[in-house]
Every structure is written in C-alpha cells, then in structure tokens.
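User: Could you check the structure of this?
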Amino acid sequence: MTQLNVAAVQYCASADAAANFACIEALVGEAARSGAQLVLLPENALFMGVHERDKLDLAEPLDDGPWQQALAALAARCGVHLVVGSFPLQVEADAQHVWPSTLVFDPAGQRVARYDKLHLFDVALDNGKVYQESRYFRRGDNAPQSFECHGVRVGLSICYDLRFPELYRQLVAEGAELLLVPAAFTHATGQEHWEVLLRARAIENLAGVVAANQCGTHPSGQRSWGHSMIVDPWGRVLASCDEQPGLCQAVIDLDALARRRREFPVLQHRSL
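Assistant: Sure, the predicted structure tokens are below.
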C-alpha cells in the first residue's frame, strides 16, 4: 500500500520574520512528531507586513541567504519535505520586484523544486479596496512545476492560481497525484470560495489536495480566512483547521487514488 502522510500548517504571519519562523518551527516540529512526511506552509510564509513593498527588503538570491538556510535546516532537522508556500526571491537586474516563489526542501535540507506564481492577484473591488500584486511581484515565467516525494508526484501552485483549473489539469497530465495550494486567501473570498474550489480541483483531477492558508488579521489590516484543509481525490475533506493557528494532518492513500482513476477514467475521456 502506498500512502503519504501530509500536513498543512496555518498561522497569522506578521511583519516580524523571526517570530513567524518560530511559529513555523513549532508547527513543523509538531507535524513531524506525528509522522508527517510532507509539510506545507502558507503563502507569504515568513512575512505579511503593513506594506507589500517591504517584501523587497526580505528578498534573497536563490539558494543564498539566512532565511533559506534556516528553512533548509528545519527540513533536515525534522526529516520532512518542507514546502515553503511562497518566499520572495530577488529578481536579477530589477530591484523593484521579487519572485513570489514556492521552495521545496527535502529531508536532507536540499532544495529540490522551485515554482514562481503564474497568476498575480490584481483586482479592484467596488468598495474601493485594491489588490495589485504585480506592483512588487514578478509573474512567473516558468512552466508548471512538480517534484517527487516518496514516489508520489506532487504539483505546485500558489493562492490565486486556484481559480485557474487549466494549471492543475496540466500538472495532472504530467503525472501529479497530489496538488499543493499554499495561500493567503482573504476572509471575504475564503468563506464563499475556498472549500468549493479546493474540492473541485480534487474531484475534477481525481487528485489529493493539500491547502495551507494564512489566518487572522495581519498588520496591513488584511484578514485571512484560515480553514487549511486536506482533500482526497473523491472530494472528501480528510482534515481541516478552523480560523485559529494550528495544523491539519491526514494520510493520502495512493492506491485508492489509482483505483478511483481506473473506475472513473475522466482524464482519458477528455475531448477538448
């Protein structure tokens, strides 16, 4: 039987990266002690300050910097695949933007994958609230990314990507059995769309989904929805959090996933 023990952690990230890391360290350690093999952190894992531009100061070159070293060491110390939902990486020859990048560290502390967010959250609401990630973030220009974890192909995405099902369909076409969704979904959209979208991505792709969201009210005033969850390929929620800091953990049964795909060969029945 092929199984993968996975965990999603959530907390209310602040402008204090050291305090955020201490929270991450405690939650990842807790998950590892409970048998987790893969632990997912939310988007903006180390920083959610008053101003988006403050992420420019936190940014590091790829594979070089104290925070990446600390995260790699944490993965090695806990013996898990640690998926950092997003971390700001410096853009060469552009000091005004960063890459919002998922970084994956294996149990030896080696980086084994990187994914740059493909869809940036640029919206203007009727109430006057404006979100413009493209002001300081550079849109990813790499192909969809995945990595192998204990024989399981795992696909990467970030937050707003969740609204674009074609990304997940391509990941599954390339072999993904488990889909990761680190996020900072707002309370307003989260309460209406978060669970519906996560379960839809699982059902339509017959894939497991692990989603780690921020929670609480951040220094900017943004309120995140929380409700991190793990969904099986049949769309059933195996484990979930509420709106408080914590973690959820479950075992994904890959044999059951393969059986579902045999019984319902929707991925082979596509005609478009």
